[in-house]
User: Fold this.
Amino acid sequence: MIQPIHLLGSASLRNPTIPIEQDSPSLRQLIVDMLETMYGARGIGLAAPQIGRSERLFVVDVSSMQEDIEANGRIMPDQPMIFINPIMENEYGDEDDFEEGCLSIPDIQEIVVRMDKIKLTYLDADFTRRTENFSGILARVIQHEYDHVEGILFLDHLTAFKRRLLKRRLNDISEGFTEAEYPVYTDELGVIYPALEEDEDEGPVRL
Ligand code: ZN
Assistant:
């Protein structure tokens, strides 16, 4: 089921996550919910804290970027990818600029500098332990999601000056003033559903 995405300011985004001890039906359901929520919001990655959960888990689907990934000579792994209990072993290579956005911070995109290669250990959807190197866009998306399970947001990578420039817009978002096209959540207001488009049929919002 699609879950509301917690907005900037929600405590869940800053709380530490807890490693998952074993596979279970509730973990399977959580993964399904996270994928549905990510696809419903047209995201390419989503971490458990973004739907108010404390599991150390994120999901990624970069299918929409297949051309870019393969154009750079990289092999596209099967999508979606499930990362359970990820541990960042290394971030290396060259510094890379990339404009990032975040489903928890709608309508704000900023350049974030990160290393362009990573080495990550995690459990995949079959609970198989893997240590893999990622580069390019996939590394970037994984770094962003990994930050989420560490309670870090991409804003934290910006300069204090840049954050000051964004302050008003960020305050608006944390107070629930956004035009996100998916259900969102703030600790104060609870769930906020997207406004119906004027030309859509009247009726209950089905989400
Ligand atoms: Zn994000």
